[in-house]
Amino acid sequence: MLKILILDDAKVIRALLKMTLESDGIEVDSASTVTEATLYTMQKSYDLMIVDLMLENGHHGFELVKAAKKQGKNTQTPSIMLSAEGSKTCKDDAQELGVKAWVKKPFTPIGILEVVYKVLDIDFSAPKALKKSMHHHHQ
Length: 139
Description:
By secondary structure, the chain is an alpha/beta fold. It contains six helices and five strands.
């Protein structure tokens, strides 16, 4: 089972990502701060990290990527950056850190899954759950 760590300070985005990934059978941990996310990377191994670039209080997602590379169980874990802006310098920095993809906000659930599977080199045939869950929501 795939395991993904999410870092985003926006609760609604964390919820959307978690729901999207879990609906496709992926295990998800989510954090709202670099500190919290870094603790996860020390304790567990992930297949992928999805990281928001601009976090509150002047923090940004690169801090997590750098921390994870240094120590813990995720020194080789690829990451995807989420950002409303995609300036060239940011992207260059990201590439140097081994960030594999850049997803501009706003994104769609199917769009994020496509990127996740592409980065992990897994064949993305339309996900089981998304097809169903989009149409039949029974509470």
